[in-house]
Amino acid sequence: MSPPTLAVVAAGAMGAAVARRLTSSGCTVLTNLEGRSQATRERAASAGMLDVPMPELAARSQWVLSILPPSDALAFAARYKAAAPAQSKLRVAFADCNAVSPETVKKIAALFAGSGIGFVDAGIIGGPPKDGYDPVFYASAAPEDSDLLDDFAGLSKYGLKVSPLRGEGAGAGDASALKMSYAGISKGIIGLTTTMILAAHASSPATAQALIHELHSSQPQILQRITTSVPTMLPKAYRWVGEMEEISSFVGGGEGQIHQGLARLYERVERSLKEEQEGGPAEDVKVLRGFVDDAKAVIGGQK
C-alpha cells in the first residue's frame, strides 16, 4: 500500500518536525499557511509540506493531525469540519494532538459525531522529533473505534512513534488526560523552581545566592536540573500559558489553582522576554539567567 496523504496543521516547531518525519518516509503532507509568518512558511517548505487551501486539504487528506497552541485547537477543528466534503471516497480521520484537557477533547470529538470523519485523541509527550529521538504519540479513541486506533498506530510505519492507550475505561480524552498529567508534573516542576528563584531574588540577591549553595549541598539533582530546564523553558513560556490553563481545568477544584498560578508565572516570563526584545529592562529574565550562570559556577567548583 502506498504511503498516505496527511495534513499537519500547523507548521510550528513540533508540527514541522513531525511533517519532516512523514515526508522522509514517502508521505505527502499538506498544510494551510493562511495568515502565517514568513518564518513559518520557510519551516514548512524545509519539512516538505505543501501549502494548499483549506477545502483542498480537507478533500485530499486521509489523516489530519492538529498540532497547535491549545487555545486554537477547538476553532481549527470546527474550521476543518466546515471545509470537509459531505461525502468522501477516502476513510478520513482527525487526530487532535494538542495539549488540551479531556473536556476540550470531548468538545472536539462531538464536532465530528455522525459526520463520517473518525476521531482520535492523541497526546504528544516529548519534544520535536530529530535524528535519534522520537516523542511518543499516546493515542486513544472511543471503544467502538478500535479499528481506527489501529490505523493511527499504523502511522508508526512512516516514522511516528505511536502508543495506543487501551484497557479498562480507556476512550477519547484519556490520551489527553495522560498528557495533562505528565506535563502537569514536568512543566509544573520547572514553573515551581522558576517561581522560587524569582521570589528568593526579590527578597535579596544574597537570598538567591544562599539558595544556590543550599540546593548544591542538599538537593544537587534539583540544582543541576535547573541549569538545563530554565534556559530551555524561556523561549517556550508563551506556549505553556494555555497548557497550564488546560491542566488547571483537568485537575479542577482548589488544586486546579496550582496550575493557574503557573500560567501567570509563564505569562510573567513571556512579558520579560518581550521587554528584552524591545530593549527594556527584562529584569526577570536577567535574574533567571544570572541564577543559572551562578549555579553552574557553584556546581563546577568555581564559586
TrEMBL record:
<dbReference type="Pfam" id="PF03446">
    <property type="entry name" value="NAD_binding_2"/>
</dbReference>
<dbReference type="InterPro" id="IPR006115">
    <property type="entry name" value="6PGDH_NADP-bd"/>
</dbReference>
<dbReference type="InterPro" id="IPR015814">
    <property type="entry name" value="Pgluconate_DH_NAD-bd_C"/>
</dbReference>
<feature type="domain" description="Phosphogluconate dehydrogenase NAD-binding putative C-terminal">
    <location>
        <begin position="202"/>
        <end position="269"/>
    </location>
</feature>
<dbReference type="Pfam" id="PF09130">
    <property type="entry name" value="DUF1932"/>
</dbReference>
<dbReference type="InterPro" id="IPR008927">
    <property type="entry name" value="6-PGluconate_DH-like_C_sf"/>
</dbReference>
<dbReference type="InterPro" id="IPR036291">
    <property type="entry name" value="NAD(P)-bd_dom_sf"/>
</dbReference>
<dbReference type="InterPro" id="IPR013328">
    <property type="entry name" value="6PGD_dom2"/>
</dbReference>
<protein>
    <submittedName>
        <fullName>6-phosphogluconate dehydrogenase</fullName>
    </submittedName>
</protein>
<feature type="domain" description="6-phosphogluconate dehydrogenase NADP-binding">
    <location>
        <begin position="6"/>
        <end position="132"/>
    </location>
</feature>
